[in-house]
Design goal:
Elements lengths: L1 H4 L2 H10 L17 H14 L14 H13 L2 H15 L23
């Protein structure tokens, strides 16, 4: 399941943007789950709408561990960096047709005279 959700090409790109695992100064503790397994769990939750608490055990980490890593990576802006890489790599090889892209925006009126 992990290899299906995180194919080798995506994994290679992801490894370029993921920060190194933090070192516990006191040592010990539980072993940290592999980044590829956690990434697969995050992709599963994002694509299926599954709740973190209901994450199937096939991925390894429990929902709480996967969500914690998701939060870590979000704070480190991993998703934005990965998105940029996913667009730049094929774009540099001329594999993207930029004439077919779309830009979306939302405008919200400031109420009560706000700017």
């Amino acid at each position: 399941m992990v290899e299906r959700l995180v194919p080798e090409e995506l994994w290679e790109l992801f490894q370029r943007v993921v920060p190194p695992a933090p070192v516990r100064p006191q040592g010990g503790g539980r072993c940290r789950y592999g980044d590829r397994e956690v990434l697969a769990a995050i992709i599963f939750v994002a694509t299926t709408g599954c709740a973190w608490q209901r994450l199937p055990p096939v991925f390894g980490p429990c929902g709480r561990a996967a969500h914690r890593r998701f939060s870590e990576w979000s704070a480190a802006r991993v998703w934005a960096k990965l998105h940029r890489l996913v667009l730049e790599e094929p774009g540099a090889r001329g594999e993207l047709d930029w004439s077919r892209c779309a830009i979306d925006a939302v405008g919200v009126r400031a109420g009560k005279g706000g700017s």
